[in-house]
Amino acid sequence: TAAHIINGLIVLSVVSAGMSSIYVTSRTICYLGKTGRAPKFLGITNNNGVPWPAILFCNLFACICFISQGPGGAGTAYTYLINLSGVSTFIVWAVICLTHIQFRRGLKAQGVNINDLPFRAMWYPYGAYFGFAANVFLIFFQGYTTVLPPFNIISFTVSYILIPVFLILFFGYKFWKKTRWVQPSQMDIWSGRRVVGEEENNTKNQTIWSRIKAIII
């Protein structure tokens, strides 16, 4: 029946999303382990290059699904997961905007011509500063309803727990690795830079209609 088909599609989409998430997360964790930003054992791979410790580590977080068996049921668990993922997204984008601001400051301090960049963000610096301010605002105010009467300590914790976690991880890493704050004039903006090849230059010089034609044909 149609209901069974829909249920089957939902199961397939959930499994697909879970597998892709485990793939991306485990490779990220593996990279952090290999570069010393996470415990070294997380960077171990087998002969086929599969980061099995990182995969097992990521799968441990799947146990969070058992909170659906709590007093609030699946609805409460879903709300908690949405809140956590939303706050983490705001934190990530705030860091991205701040990184972009610092990157441009480094370019300016080192006398690099901005026009030499193959890509330049629109509306800089206003867009970057607005994005940073907006995400910081959302980080602190997305859970404001949890402080309204009646106060719920569990909802408040879920809404704001990632803020101290992020700060502990950030400053904990700097303390553990004894890293220092880098001035814009001393930033390493060249390591890992991709050199624009001839093919990319040709693509850059094409008109918009030529690019559309190349995509269609």
From TrEMBL:
GO terms for cellular component: membrane. Residues 2-180 form the Amino acid permease/ SLC12A domain. Coiled coil: none annotated. The chain crosses the membrane at residues 6-29, 50-71, 77-101, 122-141, 153-173. Pfam families: AA_permease. It is found in: Membrane. Keywords: Membrane, Transmembrane, Transmembrane helix. The keyword Membrane applies. It is a multi-pass membrane protein. The keyword Transmembrane applies. One of its GO terms (molecular function) is amino acid transmembrane transporter activity. It comes from the Eukaryota. PANTHER family: AMINO ACID PERMEASE (PTHR43341), GENERAL AMINO ACID PERMEASE AGP3 (PTHR43341:SF26). This is Amino acid permease/ SLC12A domain-containing protein. It comes from Adineta steineri.
